[in-house]
What we know:
Radius of gyration: 18 Å
Number of domains: 1
Number of helices: 8
Amino acid sequence: MSKGFRKVWKNFWTPILHNSVIQWTLVIILAGLTWFIFLTSKHRFVNTKSLKKYRETPAVFVFFHGRCAMLSPVIKSARVKSYCVASRHKDGRMMARLQRLFGLRAIYGSTSDGAVAVLREGVRIMHEKNISVCVPVDGPSGPSMHVQDGALYFAKMTGAPIIPCCFSCSRPIYLDRWDKFMIPKLFGTISCRIGDPIYIDSKLRGEAFEQKRAEIEEIMVKQLREMDAEFKLPEIPRGIHATEYKKHNRNK
């Protein structure tokens, strides 16, 4: 695709996608498709019953950006009340509206944009409302499958456990994005795994904090790799940044 065509295409779609009515229309369609895919698939769930523990007790649910599509109906089905960290970018706001239809309210910001405000608001919500937060740990722009610090600070400051979550499927479609966003095809098998709780000592800092962050990252990567291996899926690369990925595609 030529640079000129991409520019024209972007100028055409950008004002349309900023329209609130159009956004909500698209979001309602996406929510319907998500439920249709979820309900017409076979399910292979591991430890999802543990979600019931966190209906009244807050937790920090963490997942990789490219593996969130089918987690929303799982959280909704378990009747877990939660907020979700979402980017202020238009794509993030679209996702936030989609999550709202699954009962997840948004905290706007990211590690690169308003990180302190997000942390402050999330901690306040967890303390005052006794509600969980969901954090895409490598969002909004990567590097892919890299755990950033935010989720650990939520856990450190509230005493709530970090819960690694992931899904995979037998018949995936991967979007051409830095995170290789996975969407299941109809009538396949969806696997979802809820990991064991991980607690962060409130006194943890410095090198020990970084070691814990790296440990959680390896746990989450292993979780994803094992689930994909069950379906004999190709290995998804780590460490891809959104900006670098877009630049690479433009230079093709």
